[in-house]
Amino acid sequence: MWTLLLALIALGLFIFYNTFVIVEMREEVILERFGKYHDTLHPGLHFTIPLVDRVAYRQETREQVLDVPHQKCITQDNIEVDVDGIVYLKVMDAYKASYGINDYRLAAVNLAQTTMRSEVGKITLDDTFSERDSMNEAIVEELDKASDPWGVKVMRYELKDIQPSQDIVLTMEKQMEAEREKRAEITESSGERDARINVSEGNRQKSILMSEGQREARVNEAEGEAREMELIAEATANGIERIADAIAQPGGSLAVKMRLTEQFIDRLGEIVDGANVSVLPMEAANLKSFFEGASEVTGSVQNS
Predict the structure, then answer these.
(1) How far apart (Å, rounded) are the C-alpha atoms in residues 128 and 40?
(2) Tens-digit pLDDT profile for residues 228-266
(3) Percent of the chain residues past pLDDT 70, beyond the cut
(4) What is the mean pLDDT of residues 189-194?
(5) With contact defined as beta carbons under 8 Å apart, do 80 and 93 qualify?
(6) Using an 8 Å Cβ cutoff, are 152 and 108 in contact?
(7) Of 58, 53, 44, 57, nearest in space to 19 by CA
(8) Secondary structure (3-state) at 278
(9) pLDDT at 88 over 90
(10) 125 and 75 in contact (C-beta within 8 Å)?
């Protein structure tokens, strides 16, 4: 009696469990009937036929994050680096994800590894750090092409870590140290060059200012001399003009002649006082010559 009751309860639970299927918001369910694809169940409560229908696959519809393990890659300049990354993908078609490939997660990880090795081999070690964005885009493009038949969309790929070998790290540190020393020397030499340039520029400006000052001084001096000459000329002209006006007056000509005679007599006296020869007027000079000749004749007669 109890055995039959328990069997009936178990049968009822089995039928109930296989009759109703609850699909959550984050997934889609692939339903098979007699082993063949029948329908894709979306979130909600669904009725199935026990022993006829069965849930074959439950596919996650949220974006999934897959870790790409570390692997050795060789760069274009034959440097070995250890690279890993992260793949972000999402199931867009539950039917393709269920029947298009056995395990799309494993396939995506392996494809990411091979594509990553190929992309790293195209660039040098120095470029692996500066070309991350372009590498990520190239890997996403390749993964997206391959994953389309799987009903999976690769959203993005990120290189998580690029680690060269220890020997390469030491070499890079030495290179960076040498680069820092070179930049320091360049900066120091640039400072010295700028200082010399500033000093020479200062000297040039000083010379320019001094020459401009001298030029201004000469200009001012010349202008002063010109002004002096101009004033003298104006005064002389005014004096001559006044003399001419005075001469034009009655008796002016006579006064001028008298003045010239006085100046002649004064100047003649100065010359006579300062000269070793006798300076006489023409009449007096002729008379003096006569008497000197007469004296010489008289002396000659007496000697004879």
Answers:
(1) 44
(2) 888 887 877 777 777 666 666 676 666 666 666 776 677
(3) 76
(4) 85
(5) no
(6) yes
(7) 53
(8) coil
(9) yes
(10) yes
